[in-house]
Amino acid sequence: VFGDEVKSVSVMEGDSVTLHTGLTELQTDHQILWMFNGERKIIAKIDRDTNKMSIDLPGNNDERFRDRLKLNDTTGDLTITHIKTSDSGDYKMEIIGSRQTKHKTFIVSVIDEVKSVVVMEGHPVTLHIDIQTHDVKWTVNGTDLTDSRVTNSEVNHQTGDLIISNIRRDQTGVYRVEITNRGSITHKSFYITVMDEMKSVVVMEGDPVTLHIDIQSDDVKWTFNGADLTDSRVTNSEVNHQTGDLIISNIRRDQTGEYRVEINNRGSITHKLFYINVMDEMKSVVVMEGDPVTLHIDIQSDDVKWTFNGADLTDSRVTNSEVNHQTGDLIISNIRRDQTGEYRVEINNRGSITHKLFYINVMESSQRSHWEITGPVCLGGLILLIVLIVSGVLYKYYRRGLNKNKDKSEASEQLKPSSNTNGTDT
């Protein structure tokens, strides 16, 4: 009897896996037995003496592998199709010959679908295993968690969940857990993407915008709202092949959203996140101190969020305001001069997000009285000036007409023949 050879195999749930005997061809005296989880319960068998191959063996009531096992009658390899997480465990193979018996053990780890987790740098994150047990073993990028750089983590001893506080960018990677629950071994896999703090970019509709990654690399992959940029509606964009920056020209309102970039710089993977807010053209509103003003959004919606100079309106100094719950318009009564500033609104209309921007300029009330006094005077003076100019022009043409008539009269007199009253010459 030869010593046990042990081999570890990892496979994704739903895939197929083949456990190789290492033989190119079975000998005539060979008998191969396949067993699961150390039990002597045989799940598959080949007997060259009788030239029989068996999978559904009599007396084997374990139906976990029903219609999912295949045997290669030449090599004895065992294939498990449509593998499940419950198929994780030890598969023992025995090759019995006339002279010797060989053993081989395969430790099969079935990983369920990798769960993708995106978290902002500095935030906490919890990876839930959804099985209450304390018998777990966590690894990150193949390294035992206790020996890794994830020092800001702990395992919940009741649930087995992994808790990472104040996560760093260098903690991006694959997190796997081996869960032992009443003798059954299950595996789960997570991929954590640690993003830079989201950078918010505000741009006016029709303007260009450039998203800078601040790392010179041509190996970048940009996505827009989760879709690859090449497959998205952002057709007016290009990537700078020297810097990796994304350039969008003549941006549209439907290009408001989340832009992510994966940067591969000499094997080091970095992720950055941007949120572009495409605004309508800013509407400027001038109002006198003490007057009311209404900012119209022109879209009937009650799902709106107003901000004043970047602060939520409910937390700002605009206490004399209310939102019309039918139209979403903002109404400010008796406005003050310290309420001059930028008013933004995010409008959610049946899942479609729109943004609008207003700038209110509150004028001093003294300017109102100044205008009330000087306004009519200035207007009257302007009218008088126009009348004088018009009168002067008319008088000029009138004088020119008189001079022309006088000149014509004098010329006519000079052309008349003179008369001789003393008789004719001799």
UniProtKB/TrEMBL annotation:
Residues 406-426 are annotated as: Disordered. SMART domains: IG. Keywords: Membrane, Transmembrane, Transmembrane helix. Coiled coil: none annotated. The chain crosses the membrane at residues 373-398. The keyword Protein transport does not apply. Gene3D superfamilies: Immunoglobulins. Residues 6-111, 114-195, 198-279, 282-363 form the Immunoglobulin domain. InterPro entries: Ig-like_dom_sf, Ig-like_fold, Ig_I-set, Ig_sub, Ig_V-set. It comes from the Eukaryota. Residues 415-426 have a biased composition (Polar residues). This is Immunoglobulin domain-containing protein. It comes from Triplophysa rosa.
